[in-house]
Specification:
The protein has helices spanning 11-27, 44-48, 66-81, 91-99, 124-138, 149-158, 174-178, 184-190, 212-220, 238-247, 263-269, 284-291, 304-307, 322-334, 336-349, 355-369; strands spanning 3-10, 31-37, 52-55, 85-89, 108-113, 143-146, 163-166, 198-203, 227-232, 254-258, 272-275, 296-299, 314-317. It is an alpha/beta fold.
């Protein structure tokens, strides 16, 4: 039985994205453990599967001294348990995972890049810091997995991993979102919204990268009082966004919902999904909204343009253009036939990213582990 360590910087990454992979690997006969900075509750599914989660003091800040201690603990963990494979995720943990190769020559390192920090249009500082690190570490990488086409192309050209694969995302359960049933009128009433109002939804942390401000400004420039903007997510910009909404005269139409455990229902009662991020790898929430049958307006960035073809299944906008988002929202409201086209194409296109399809593609990688 091959022993696999699933490694991430923080365990919320495991909870959010990797449980299906862990369950699949266990069914295939691998012995699985996890390791990360335990910054949130361990998922009940891991407990049910009797998966050991080792606590390492990694920090998302690559300059934090905590990472040195975490690396020492990782070395000791490898000495103790002698893992055959490390399946690593997130930049900080993955850098240190590959340094293990310098000492433990026979260990196989598989690195899934959820989105390189260097990309077309990225700040120069990202290229100066993260690109050299990834380039050097790629020499110590047996398998590198990219989950969007821009990263895959760059990895094939510039990185030195023994093998490079493209996998369409980490996978998610399309049926969970496409088959969700909800009483639209009742659910909207819970949110203080009537049936005639236009509900625009975004999902994501309230931070600068998620760029919710551009949607708030776009809505403020549309002369309609029936447009309401809902954002599911927490973050440090909450007060700033409320203040901005107040200054623009639309505070009563901007609703910051915080953390929600009913996202699948929110998708089903919304009219438009807006996703204006400045940087993404391949957004799960964008995929979920497609599966839920929503027309999409999103920023034209890496990852998003793997999912959305402009005027085919949604609108792609310049991430900084208030006017482009404004005009796209107006088109979406007015043109019902276009909406139907977008929804139909989304529900067809998203099947490529379903967890079952992703697992089939991952099988080729698992064969390499044997």
């Amino acid at each position: 039985m091959k022993k696999v360590l699933i490694l991430t910087t923080v365990n919320s990454t495991i909870n959010g994205f990797l449980i299906p992979h862990i369950q699949d690997l266990k069914k295939r006969g691998f012995y699985i453990e996890c390791a990360a900075n335990i910054n949130s509750e361990i998922d009940e599914r891991l407990i049910k599967e009797n998966i050991v989660v080792n606590n390492l003091s990694f920090s998302r800040n690559p300059l934090s001294y905590h990472n040195i201690k975490a690396f020492i603990d990782l070395v000791n963990l490898q000495k103790k348990n002698n893992y055959d494979i490390i399946f690593t995720h997130t930049p900080v943990a993955s850098m240190y995972a590959r340094l293990l190769k310098l000492r433990f020559k026979n260990i196989k390192i598989t690195y899934m890049a959820h989105g390189f920090h260097f990309y077309k249009g990225a700040p120069i500082i990202n290229w100066l810091i993260y690109y050299p690190i990834e380039k050097i570490c790629s020499y110590l990488t047996d398998i590198l997995i990219a989950i969007n086409t821009e990263d895959y192309d760059l990895a094939k050209r510039k990185m030195k991993a023994k093998k490079v694969y493209y996998i369409p995302g980490v996978g998610f359960d399309v049926n969970k979102f496409s088959n969700t049933k909800v009483d639209r009128i009742k659910k909207r009433k819970e949110l203080g919204l009537n049936e005639e109002s236009i509900m625009i939804l975004s999902v994501g942390e309230l931070n600068a990268n998620k760029n919710h401000e551009v949607i708030i400004r776009a809505i403020s420039n549309i002369n309609r009082d029936d447009i309401h903007y809902f954002v599911a997510g927490e973050g440090k910009l909450k007060e700033y966004l409320y203040k901005l909404s107040d200054e623009l005269g639309i505070k009563n139409r901007v609703h910051l919902l915080g953390f929600r455990n009913d996202i699948n229902e929110l998708y089903k009662i919304s009219d438009i999904f807006c996703f204006p991020s400045k940087r993404e790898g391949l957004s799960v929430s964008l995929m979920e909204s497609m599966a839920s049958g929503l027309p999409i307006i999103c920023s034209d960035i890496r990852g998003n343009n793997d999912l959305i073809n402009n005027n085919i299944n949604g609108f792609l906008c310049n991430k900084n253009s208030i006017d482009e988002f404004k005009y796209s929202i107006q088109k979406m409201i007015i043109n019902k036939d276009l909406n139907k086209k977008f929804i139909k194409n989304n529900q067809k296109d998203i099947l490529e990213f379903d967890i079952e399809n992703v697992m089939k593609k991952m099988n080729e990688i698992y064969v390499d582990w044997m």
